[in-house]
Amino acid sequence: MSTTRRAAVVAIVVCALAFTIAVPLRTYLSQRAEVAEQEARQEQLQQQVERLEQRKAELSDPAQVEAEARRRLRYVMPGETPYIVQLPEDAAAEPEPARGDDSPARHGAWYEQLWDGVTEGE
What we know:
Blueprint: H1 3-59, H2 62-72, H3 88-93, H4 104-107, H5 110-119
């Protein structure tokens, strides 16, 4: 065989090997990237589970539950006098609706709005 034919055969063999290796290599690399992404997601979820378990442990204490109810729901014990202090900054944070504004708070509860919407066509 001449050197040109040998070179052509070697080039064909090299191309065949490259095509044979390319697809599995691409699959391997994409799977590695996906595994890394899933491991990062698993780490985030593990941190979230730890935070939620810590929060669950905090709320297992009845005093903590009572404090949360007082703070978030503004519950008071029987015999206590509740006070709400409004600072000027708090009033400025809640803009009043303009006149003629059709905000849901002006028309009543959600079920009243739903009924008004249903009976509007009659």
